[in-house]
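Technical annex, item 7. During the second reporting period the consortium partners agreed on a shared format for inverse folding records so that results from different sites could be compared directly. Each record opens with the tokenized structure and is followed by the designed sequence. A conforming record, contributed by the partner at site C, is shown below for reference.
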């Protein structure tokens, strides 16, 4: 019985993720702010504050495919986004 209990959590694949902006390259800050503004529908001022308060949760309940695209897009811009 002990082995079955350990195997069960691994079988349940996670489908929804929380994206967190961990950090960003200072030189890329304007691009990161612009992307956050577009992605989250915030004003420019709100987006700037959001980026400057990293690490900060960006989105919750994001499907795996979308989360991978966002992580990759932000990485290209110079930001570190973690998908949990």
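Designed sequence (site C submission):
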């Amino acid at each position: 019985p002990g082995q079955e209990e350990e195997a069960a959590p691994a079988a349940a694949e996670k489908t929804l993720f929380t994206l967190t902006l961990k950090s960003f390259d200072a030189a890329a800050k304007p691009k990161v702010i612009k992307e956050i503004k577009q992605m989250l529908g915030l004003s420019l001022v709100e987006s700037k504050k959001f980026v400057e308060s990293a690490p900060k949760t960006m989105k919750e309940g994001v499907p795996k495919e979308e989360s991978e695209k966002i992580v990759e897009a932000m990485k290209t811009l110079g930001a570190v986004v973690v998908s949990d």
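The first strand starts at residue 16 and ends at 24. Strands lie at 16-24, 56-63, 79-83. All partners now use this format for quarterly exchanges.
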